[in-house]
Amino acid sequence: MSNLIECFHPYQIKNLNSIKEYLFLLKNILRIISTSKFKEKIKGINIPIRWSTKHFRWVVDFGSDKLRDIEGIHLDNLRFYYDKESEVFNSIVCVLNKIQNCKNMNDFGSTYKLFKNENRFLNFVFKENKIFLTGLYNRCQTKKRCGIYSSKNLKSIEIDTSENFLNLAADKLMFLEQQNFYKINFSYRKSYEEFFKIIEKEELEFKVSNNEFKYYLIKDYYNVQNKIKKYEIKKYMNAIEKTSLFNEKDIFQFLILHITLMFNHFILKNLNSNKLDDIIFKDFDSGKNIKIVSKFNTEPVFIKEKILKTPLLPMSF
User: Fold this and answer.
1) What are 266-312's pLDDT values in tens digits?
2) Are 96 and 75 in contact (CB under 8 A)?
3) What are the E-state strand segments in 103-260?
4) Where is 50: in which H helix or E strand?
């Protein structure tokens, strides 16, 4: 299932060349958090909803180039794509039924030009029988589908994800859960100094052979120049848990990933009085949504779809 709403780990904001550069970036993230609001990152199933002129109804569109999404998924064809016992099937049914029975939905759609532009969509998140809204978006064009152009190859572009918009939506669409925004006051310079002291002492232990372990201090690699094409989280986790042997060529990416988790835990533990597991906020310099998570998700997101067999057709000569 395509994820139209993209959130980035801090190390994904830009191409990094050194640990020292990354620490400077993390200091800037602390500055952003100290001056702006953040919200909880809701863990659930994303359900992007748009209007379909063809079907004259609200449909689910995960943004892929599959006919399923181009046509739009609705209550009458849902069973063709997902098993009735699956979590995604039940989530879609719940969201579409709530929208269908919401008397203010059409007025809301008109206000935000959802009927005139089928590339616009609302992204709902279904979690434990509750429905949240993350915002209003524009789908970006692909090789097979129209949409707004993105020079950065984004899947979607935000139109409005502000606190005011989400509060207004929750007032109009009564089935929505209110999503809270949080603001914390702290000195980002002082907090960075505290975090840097932790980094200075951090030592990593890796298994380099069946009977041998090797230790690495992060501070010894501050100025080492390197470029990473791909960060391998699963590989890092296996090395940290010592379930696989460590290869020194991976040291730079492992240190970046390790510093990321340390930074995340530092924020969630020391600056987060609301005890949220994961948070998300906007980096206005890069235009990206940054996620601060308590742990990396190493399991692939996979929703099993039904495989439809091509019907037999009369042969022609």
Assistant:
1) 998 876 566 788 999 988 887 889 999 999 987 654 445 554 433 33
2) yes
3) 120-127, 130-139, 156-160, 181-182, 203-209, 212-217
4) strand 45-52
Q: Residue 105: helix, strand or coil by DSSP?
A: helix
Dist. CA 98–CA 119, nearest whole Å: 22
Point out the domain boundary residue: 140, 158, 178. Answer: 178
Q: What is the pLDDT of residues 145-174, one digit of tens each?
A: 999 988 888 899 999 999 999 999 999 999
* Co-location of 25 and 148 in the same domain: no
284 in a domain, yes or no? yes
Instruction: Tell me the whole-structure pTM to 2 decimals.
Output: 0.87
Residue 199's domain comprises 13-36+184-292
Contact 138, 148 (CB under 8 A): yes
Which among 111, 126, 116 has a CA at the least distance from the CA of 171? 111
Q: How open is the CA angle 2-4-7, to the nearest 5 degrees?
A: 110
